[in-house]
Amino acid sequence: DADRKSVAQIAQESRDLAERAKSGQLGTDEYSGSTFTVSNLGMMQIEAFTAIINPPEAAILAVGALKQEPVVTADGTLAVSWQMNVTMTCDHRVIDGALGARFLQSLRGYVESPALLLV
To answer: Which terminal residue of the chain has fewer beta carbons within 10 Å of its beta carbon, N or C?
Structure first.
């Protein structure tokens, strides 16, 4: 029900779930039956990877590490910018490629401008 919760509620529940997972106190019902998973190996300095869908999920998002890379800016100058790879694996019986691409486009917008989450 993340679509019905505020960013603050999701953050609080995520912290609670993470703490209980680390201490082995999660119930099976709290980590099974999902439709979408986020797999973050970026915290282990993995830059990019392909995450495999766990049935009955519809998709999984693979999040890589942040790293600084040279980029060409809109005005044509060279600069250094933080970059991050994310890839999404979709079950095409549920989510077609165009819908997945639109999701990633929206995600990019929120990562680049997090204040949009508060509107």
So the answer is: C
